[in-house]
Amino acid sequence: MSDRVLLVKLGETDLVLADPEDDIRGRTVVDTDGEKFGKVDGLFLDHDEGKVRLLQVVDGGFLGLGKESRLVPVELVRKLDADQVVIDRHRQAVVDAPGYDPELTDAPDYDDIYRYYDVGPWWGTRPFG
């Protein structure tokens, strides 16, 4: 587990986004091929810096059963509009990412997430490798 600062999930704190337009929860996630495959279910914030660091993307399920949750670094967001969040990965890359089950853990391993997506973490300047 990373010894970095812990992130907090917006909605489980008294924090609010300065601009309500920045709240992308509920928007559809779209991959690099334009395929829709999930929704933004949560935002993980760096409390100290007040920045969103990870998106919680949920996919699948029916009436809350069988849905899967993955965390995606905000560095992968390429475009936002009123209804969608376009990320710089194919759907399968997100589906194959380490799962996140909020019922089992409050603090995911950020190192593993950033390493999986091969992007530099917010606390450093170099990508993993």
TrEMBL record:
InterPro entries: Bac_photo_RC_H_C, PRC-brl_dom, PRC_barrel-like_sf. It comes from the Bacteria. It comes from Kribbella caucasensis. SUPFAM superfamilies: PRC-barrel domain. Residues 23-89 form the PRC-barrel domain. Pfam families: PRC. One of its GO terms (cellular component) is plasma membrane light-harvesting complex. One of its GO terms (biological process) is photosynthesis, light reaction. The lineage of its organism: Bacteria, Bacillati, Actinomycetota, Actinomycetes, Propionibacteriales. This is Sporulation protein YlmC with PRC-barrel domain.
